[in-house]
């Protein structure tokens, strides 16, 4: 089978099963994320970086202005200076830098929030667009489902936060470097004392954040369980069965057990963080006291000024705060890499089906020829179809029957090119299906699948989605289609006709299963293709309504090649030819009458269904 992942993905991005935290992963995924955004949001990113650098420099000038003003006041009081020029100069400078600091910080905060929202939206759109290009076969992969699940868990927001965290991180590092240099100019022992402390503190916090990140990655599957349980116990689709089975207490107990496990793990790791924080805070305060005593001694001996002493204490404390903030931003960036890793994998995943083919004939006759076709689903070993050879004539109505798991739906999806065969060929009008443009192929198929869509929106939209580019703004054409499919009377009885909002999420009107299915059938015939696929299209209808629908199908599908899946043999008997599938192979084929005469599998299944229908209920 064609591999689901591109070579570049395999080379550059690994599926990390051990959830190990290391610098290489951070740099690789972080570098990719920064480059991805910078390439798409270059001007906004440059502007934010410039603001961040300016924000990191202004506090240094403010400290220098404060030092100059204090020294000027001291000199004035000591009689060293006789005028107020220096005082007014440094006061004006302090006011200027303080105002700029406040303004730039506010502007940066707004710009960072806007940038984060913009990046979040950008990545969300990219994810949706990329997923829409992937193939159904890929969603069958459990590994891909894990990647998709994690990438969908606020991955876009995490992507935006990551950039802001990195910019903040660099900004605080620059500011801290400047503050450290100012302290060094006052007392040269500042760097030999504080730099080793800062290095050890950063290393300890790095290990601690790495441990937290490893923990969060290791319980990703359990996190999915908590979301799953929450969705199942609150979702309307599952509530009736959960209430009847009284499953809620068991599911809630399971949820509570998982959350208690998380809470205990978090308690233990918070205790580790508290001990690290307490130790280094005590050590940091002790070092600052030692350095302050040295500066006080320098002031007493006349080597340093009162201004030096004043700014040394405040700057040392600000440096300490910057160090803590740097750790927080580092932790946030590392946490975001959990999502960025899987987002990167997702966006590097390439479609399995070739999209470079561009054959687009003027007319599609709908003739299929299957030559020794086999197919095996991803990450499974047993083939769903095996050595199937079949010829379907243009305009022929073919019914596929067989027990559950016989391969009927798989065969339809191969004919629709939602999958590619593991081996063998499928020809459409004499050409390999893979030579056709995918866009062209999609427009040739009309379909009603067993799990048809029930779209939240108006009746008009639900029908127009069949060919939305042509119909979404043409209510007259939609009504024509509805009348042709026999659902116009149903729609007219709704509160607002074709503008009635369906579903419970945005509207107040819901339909029965059979009515939704009639809408899905109308949506299918909104297209103008030449191949009709019907996978249990009337499973929600009673036999009388089903018979009427199929009589209608015969009129609507005239001239189209029709592939029908149905468990009801009364429906299948209307087909020109019936294909009986058994365990992924063609067991029998022929008309309803000829298959009954063969007294084989079809006849056995038909008699079983007939006995069940005749049995009094």
Structure notes:
- This protein is α/β, with parallel strands linked by helices and 617 residues long.
- It has two domains: 7-348, ABC transporter type 1, transmembrane domain (ABC transporter transmembrane region fold, Up-down Bundle), CATH 1.20.1560.10; 368-614, P-loop containing nucleotide triphosphate hydrolases (Rossmann fold, 3-Layer(aba) Sandwich).
- It contains 23 helices and twelve strands.
- The strands form three sheets. Strands 6-9-10-3-11-12 form a six-stranded mixed beta sheet, with helices on both faces. It has a four-stranded antiparallel beta sheet with strand order 2-1-4-5, covered by helices on one side.
- A hairpin with a 2-residue loop joins β11 (577-582) and β12 (585-590).
- α3 packs antiparallel against α12 (306-348).
- The longest helix has 53 residues, at 248-300.
- The protein is elongated, with a radius of gyration of 35 Å.
Strand order of the largest sheet: 6-9-10-3-11-12
In percent, how helical is the residue content?
55-70%
- Mean model confidence by pLDDT: 84
CATH class of the largest domain: Mainly Alpha
Beta-strand segment tally? 12
The second-level CATH architecture of the largest domain is Up-down Bundle
Give the class from helix and strand content and strand pairing.
alpha/beta
Total helices: the number is 23
How far is the first residue's CA from the last residue's CA?
47 Å
Q: What share of residues are in beta strands?
A: 5-15%
Biggest sheet layout: 6 strands, mixed
**Rg over C-alpha atoms, rounded to the nearest angstrom:** 35 Å
Uncertain segments of ≥5 residues (pLDDT<50)? 1-20
